[in-house]
C-alpha cells in the first residue's frame, strides 16, 4: 500500500488536476489498462481463464451489475473480492461525509450544506480501495434497514421532525456509494427484501418508510448464488434478476493442474505434503464430482481437498512429534486420516445411506491408482514384487517413522529400483523417500500384485 495523497481541501484537489470519474468508468479504465499492459487483474483464480473471466471482464467493461451462479466452493466469493483490485488505490471523499461522497459531487443534504458553506476550503479525506468494498452474507433475518436504511429514532428524539432527511440512518448499499457491494447467497434474502433493492439498482433512489430520496447512488452491486435447481431456501425474484446486467455461471476446475494449484494456494499446511499426495487429493475430489453416489446438485467444494491436505499434514506432524522425527513429511498412509474427517463435506444420494465410508475409500483408492500409473508408468517393479512373494514384509503406519520404514525394506541386491522410484517423485530426504516407496507399494497392492493387512495404526504389505 502506498501512502495517501496529501491534498486536504477541495481547492487543492482542483489545483492538482484531479478528474472525477464514475465508479464504472474507474473500473473499466483500470481493467483496460491491466489488459493493455499484460497484467493479470485476477490473481489467485485458477481454471477460469477461458470461461468465467472473459465473461466477467466484458460485463465490467459494459458497466453491468453482476450475479455469479455456481455450486459451493467454486471461488465465487474470491472472485467478487478480487474486483477491489480494479478500483483506484486512493480516492478523495468529503471529510466526515456519511456516504463517502466525492468532493466535487455531494449528494446528501449535510454534504451539500457543507460544500456551500466552505467552498474551496471544504476538507477532503482519502479512502483506500479496500474500504470501498462491502460484503453482506444474505441470511433470512436480514432486514430492509440493514441493506437500505431506516428512520433513526435517536435523531428524532433529538428534536428533528420525521420529514427531515437527516433522521435517516443509511444501510449497507447507500453506504457503499462509489464502491462495490457484494451480497453472498442472494436467494437466501426474503423476497420482500429483494423487492427493496429494485429501485436502488435501476432508478438509483431509495425509499424508506415513505421517504423518497433522490440520491444518485454510484454503486456496483455484485452477488453470488447457488443455481435455483439446488437451493430450496429461496430464489432470486424475476424483477431483480432482470436488473442484473450479467448472469455468469462459475464451475469447478476442469484441469487437474488447476485443482492442484487451488489446493497449494489455499491450504495452510503444518508439514511437508509432497506433490503426489496433493495430486491424489485433487483426483479424489474430481472422482467425487463424477460419482453417481454423490448429490451433484450440491457439488463437492474445493474446501474438501483443501481440508484434506491440511488433515494429512497434521497427521504427519503428529507422527513426527510423537515418534521424534526431525522432519514432518506426509506419506500415503496419512491419506486414510482424511476419510475419517471429510465425510461430512459431501452430500450423498439418499439411497447411499450407510455406505459413505465405503464409497470414499473406493474413490480414494481409484485416485491413488491413477496417480501411481501417472508417475510410475514404464517402471519395472518386478524385483520388489518378487521379494515380497518370497516372504519379505514391509510395515508402515502412523507410529512408523520414515527411517524405520526405509530400514525395513527388503534388500534388492545391487538394484537401484528404490532410487528410480524416488527420482520419479523428486524425493530427496527420508520422509519424501519413504512416501515415494510407500506409494509404489500401495500401487502394487491396488494392482493386486501384493497383499495388504491393516490393523489399527499399523499397515503391513506382504
Supply the key terms.
Rossmann fold, 20 helices, 13% strand, 14 strands, 462 residues, 2 domains, elongated, alpha/beta, 5-stranded parallel sheet
Q: Could you characterize what this model shows?
A:
It is a single chain. By secondary structure, this protein is an alpha/beta fold. It has 2 domains: 10-249, Rossmann fold, CATH 3.40.50.300; 256-461, no CATH class. The chain contains 20 helices and 14 strands. It has helices at residues 10-15, 23-37, 52-62, 76-82, 109-118, 144-147, 153-157, 172-175, 191-196, 198-202, 238-243, 256-266, 275-290, 302-323, 335-342, 356-376, 382-389, 402-407, 417-424, 430-446; strands at residues 66-69, 90-94, 124-128, 133-137, 149-151, 168-170, 179-184, 206-208, 211-213, 219-225, 246-249, 394-397, 452-455, 458-461. The strands form 5 sheets. A 5-stranded parallel β-sheet has the order 4-7-10-1-11. A 3-stranded antiparallel β-sheet has the order 12-14-13, covered by helices on one side. A hairpin with a 2-residue loop joins strand 8 (206-208) and strand 9 (211-213). The longest helix is centred in the last third of the chain and has 22 residues, at 302-323. It is elongated, with a radius of gyration of 29 Å. The mean pLDDT is 90.
Amino acid at each position: 500500500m502506498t501512502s495517501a495523497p496529501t491534498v486536504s481541501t477541495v481547492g487543492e484537489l482542483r489545483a492538482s488536476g484531479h478528474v472525477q470519474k464514475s465508479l464504472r468508468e474507474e473500473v473499466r479504465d483500470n481493467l483496460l489498462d491491466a489488459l493493455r499492459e499484460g497484467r493479470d487483474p485476477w490473481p489467485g483464480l485458477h481454471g477460469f481463464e477461458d470461461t468465467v473471466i472473459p465473461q466477467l471482464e466484458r460485463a465490467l467493461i459494459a458497466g453491468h451489475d453482476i450475479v455469479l451462479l455456481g455450486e459451493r466452493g467454486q471461488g465465487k466469493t474470491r472472485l467478487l473480492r478480487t474486483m477491489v483490485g480494479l478500483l483506484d488505490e486512493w480516492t478523495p471523499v468529503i471529510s466526515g461525509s456519511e456516504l463517502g461522497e466525492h468532493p466535487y459531487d455531494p449528494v446528501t443534504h449535510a454534504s451539500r450544506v457543507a460544500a456551500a458553506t466552505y467552498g474551496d476550503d471544504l476538507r477532503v479525506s482519502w479512502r483506500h480501495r479496500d474500504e470501498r468494498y462491502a460484503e453482506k452474507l444474505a441470511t433470512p433475518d436480514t432486514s430492509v434497514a440493514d441493506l437500505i436504511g431506516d428512520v433513526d429514532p435517536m435523531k428524532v428524539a433529538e428534536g428533528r421532525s420525521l420529514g427531515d432527511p437527516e433522521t435517516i440512518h443509511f444501510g449497507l448499499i447507500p453506504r457503499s456509494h462509489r464502491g462495490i457491494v457484494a451480497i453472498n447467497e442472494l436467494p437466501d434474502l426474503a423476497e420482500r427484501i429483494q423487492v427493496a433493492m429494485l429501485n436502488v439498482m435501476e432508478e438509483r433512489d431509495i425509499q424508506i418508510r415513505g421517504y423518497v430520496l433522490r440520491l444518485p447512488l454510484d454503486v456496483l452491486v455484485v452477488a453470488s448464488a447457488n443455481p435455483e435447481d439446488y437451493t430450496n431456501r429461496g430464489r432470486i425474484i424475476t424483477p431483480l434478476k432482470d436488473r442484473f446486467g450479467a448472469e455468469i455461471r462459475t464451475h469447478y476446475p476442469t484441469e487437474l493442474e488447476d485443482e492442484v494449484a487451488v489446493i497449494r494456494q489455499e491450504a495452510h499446511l503444518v508439514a511437508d505434503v509432497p506433490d503426489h499426495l496433493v495430486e491424489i487429493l485433487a483426483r479424489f475430489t474430481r472422482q467425487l464430482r463424477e460419482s453417481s453416489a454423490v448429490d451433484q446438485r450440491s457439488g463437492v467444494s474445493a474446501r474438501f481437498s483443501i481440508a484434506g491436505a491440511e488433515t494429512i499434514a497434521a497427521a504427519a506432524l503428529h507422527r513426527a512429534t510423537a515418534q521424534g522425527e526431525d522432519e514432518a513429511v506426509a506419506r500415503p498412509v496419512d491419506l486414510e486420516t482424511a476419510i475419517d474427517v471429510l465425510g461430512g463435506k459431501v452430500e450423498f444420494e439418499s439411497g447411499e445411506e450407510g455406505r459413505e465410508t465405503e464409497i470414499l475409500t473406493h474413490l480414494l483408492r481409484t485416485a491413488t491408482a491413477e496417480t501411481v500409473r501417472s508417475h510410475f508408468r514404464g517402471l519395472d517393479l518386478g524385483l520388489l514384487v518378487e521379494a515380497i512373494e518370497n516372504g519379505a514384509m514391509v510395515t508402515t503406519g502412523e507410529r512408523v517413522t520414515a527411517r524405520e520404514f526405509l530400514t525395513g525394506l527388503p534388500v534388492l541386491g545391487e538394484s537401484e529400483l528404490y532410487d528410480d522410484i524416488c527420482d520419479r517423485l523428486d524425493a530427496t530426504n527420508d520422509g519424501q523417500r519413504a512416501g515415494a516407496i510407500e506409494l509404489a507399494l500401495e500401487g502394487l497392492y491396488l494392482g493386486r500384485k501384493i497383499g495388504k493387512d491393516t490393523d489399527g495404526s499399523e499397515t503391513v504389505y506382504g
